Amino acid sequence: MKKTRRRKTAVKADPAEDENASPKSNNTSPPIASNASSSSSNAPRSVNIKTKFPVARIKRIMQADEDVGKVAQVTPVVVSKALELFMIALCDKASEEARQRNSKRITAGHLKQAILNEVQFDFLADIIEKVPDIPAACEGGNLGGNGDNSEDGAPVKKTRKPRSRKAKEEDSF
């Protein structure tokens, strides 16, 4: 049997993680903490990503375009990594919006505000026009449609309509 070599397709996010990358990478710094001063910078945070975007599907989508010819093997891998970094940045901004409004959940309204407030995401402005804004009551605290708390602080129980019983066989005809 002939053995074939497999290429390593893992893309390193930070060259400082590799000890043998260069002699200048000896200074290891702790991950950047997210606070108010560092939130305006575009420095990447250390995020453990377990989910990967499907490379085969990305390649299929790229080849579906008639203008695209052959696609190099590494191209979908790079696009997948770029997509991961984009999603991390977008989710970080949306989580900042949610924290500012004392919300535990990120909603579509938080994503909309993150896109409107960040110049980097301007290309998504046309898509989010249809998304409703966050209600003004939500901005004051934990109120609103995210289901975290109700207005008076007590949980609200939803009541259901009782299930109707099946009709007897003689009644059905």
Order of helices and strands: HHHHH
Q: What's the number of extended β-strand segments?
A: 0
Which fold does the CATH topology of the domain at 50-146 refer to?
Answer: Histone, subunit A
Which class of the domain at 50-146 in CATH terms?
Mainly Alpha
- Rg measurement, Å: 25 Å
The oligomeric state of the chains shown is: single chain
Q: CATH H level of the domain at 50-146: which superfamily?
A: Histone, subunit A
Low-confidence stretches: 10-41, 138-147
* Strand coverage percent: under 5%
Mean pLDDT across the residues is 72
Helical run tally:
5
| Gross geometry | extended
SS-based structural class?
mainly alpha
Give the N-to-C terminal Cα separation: 72 Å
CATH architecture identity of the domain at 50-146? Orthogonal Bundle
Task: Give the biggest beta sheet.
Answer: none
Pfam families: CBFD_NFYB_HMF
Region (Disordered): 1-46, 138-173
GO molecular function, one term: protein heterodimerization activity
Keywords: Nucleus
Short description:
Helix content is 32%, strand content 0%. It is an all-alpha fold.
Describe the model.
GO terms for molecular function: core promoter sequence-specific DNA binding; protein heterodimerization activity; RNA polymerase II general transcription initiation factor activity. It is found in: Nucleus. The chain has 173 residues and is mainly α. The chain has 5 helices and no strands. Helix 1 packs across helix 2. The radius of gyration is 25 Å and the shape is extended. The model is unreliable at 10-41 and 138-147 (pLDDT under 50).
